[in-house]
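Exercise 7. Given the encoded structure of a 335-residue chain, write a plausible sequence.
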């Protein structure tokens, strides 16, 4: 940092404008100086007036850049290249039946198993970055090492984004205002472009389209979920997305998953929907609280998925026509 000129600092870390403003430092015309030289040329009176300590300020600037980089997810070592699940035990303390499970960005893993078998528990282990300190005794590694405590405790540096069946807004904002606020809180540079992109993607997922002026409280369940999924995919810094059953979500689930993995997310989802489970590369079978098997999706299953997608298309068309109050005609439905 010491060797960088103010111009270079601003170029690399545009958010430092705020730091200079907050400290009432007028840097105009001094951009070619490094920060310490700039401070040195300020006269005593000015330093006193602005309550500036030239010895500490460079260190404060360093710390500001560090904190903001973490907040914005810019730190290189924040990049998640792999998520590893190490085995624990089931509800009867029987060891789990796998060595280790490594999941890479853009991969989808489904979690299947009967009610109460422990699907949500597995998602919670990942969210909490378990280190043999949950009822399952599992451990989670990020980039093949025990995760930094910052993943657990920092509210701004969330490892994981959660998407669930129930998503309701309680704030009184339009879609545009909501997206702008979120983009600002993430210090996104091209806030308008991002908001437009999120709205466009959300509308591809939602059954009924909505506009940027729609109040978020008037969005239907499906529209809210579509908005949250598009927002998570495009704006959220969380590299891992956990989905707890989006079966009845009223959105195009296939497109939702495609959008998430197109943004390099690691996706784990608890689901019994064959259309979703077979989109995954692998599925974890949970029984009695433990991982009983990790199955690769076979070629036959992928072919079956294509057929089921065609069936799903038929069902969707019929549903759309019914909703529009029309009489169903087989020749229109089975195209
Ligand atoms: N290995 C384990 N050891 C002890 N308790 C466990 C273990 N796995 C899960 N549990 C507990 O079992 C209960 C049921 O688990 P969970 O809610 O994760 O099931 P689920 O498969 O998500 O169920 P549903 O399909 O009904 O949502 C929870 O209280 C959970 O903490």
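Solution.
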């Amino acid at each position: 940092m010491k060797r960088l000129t103010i111009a270079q600092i601003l170029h690399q870390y545009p958010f430092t404008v705020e730091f200079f403003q907050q400290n009432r430092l007028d840097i105009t015309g001094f951009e070619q100086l490094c920060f310490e030289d700039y401070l040195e040329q300020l006269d005593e009176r000015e330093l006193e007036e602005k309550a500036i300590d030239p010895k500490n300020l460079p260190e404060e600037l360093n710390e500001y850049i560090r904190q903001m980089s973490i907040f914005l997810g810019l730190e290189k070592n924040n990049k998640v290249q792999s998520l590893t699940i190490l085995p624990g035990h089931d509800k009867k303390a029987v060891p789990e039946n796998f060595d280790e499970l490594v999941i890479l960005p853009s991969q989808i893993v489904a979690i299947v198993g009967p009610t109460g078998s422990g699907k949500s528990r597995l998602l919670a282990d990942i969210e909490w970055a378990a280190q043999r300190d949950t009822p399952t005794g599992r451990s989670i590694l990020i980039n093949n090492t025990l995760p930094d405590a910052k993943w657990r405790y920092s509210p701004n540096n969330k490892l994981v984004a959660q998407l669930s069946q129930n998503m309701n807004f309680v704030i009184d904002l339009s879609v545009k205002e909501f997206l702008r606020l979120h983009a600002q809180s993430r210090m996104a540079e091209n806030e308008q472009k991002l908001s437009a992109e999120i709205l466009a993607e959300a509308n591809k997922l939602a059954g009924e389209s909505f506009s940027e002026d729609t109040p978020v409280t008037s969005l239907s369940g499906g529209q809210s979920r579509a908005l949250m999924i598009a927002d998570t995919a495009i704006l959220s810094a969380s590299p891992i997305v956990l989905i707890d059953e989006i079966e009845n979500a009223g959105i195009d689930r296939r497109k939702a998953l495609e959008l998430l993995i197109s943004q390099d997310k690691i996706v784990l989802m608890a689901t019994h929907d064959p259309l979703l489970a077979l989109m995954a590369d692998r599925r974890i079978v949970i029984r009695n609280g433990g991982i009983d098997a990790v199955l690769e999706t076979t070629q036959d299953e992928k072919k079956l998925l294509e057929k089921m997608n065609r069936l799903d298309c038929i069902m969707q068309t019929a549903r759309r026509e019914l909703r529009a109050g029309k009489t169903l005609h087989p020749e229109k439905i089975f195209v």
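Remark. Residues 89-91, 113, 115-121, 135-136, 289-290 surround adenosine-5'-triphosphate (CB under 6 Å). Students should compare their own answers with the one above.
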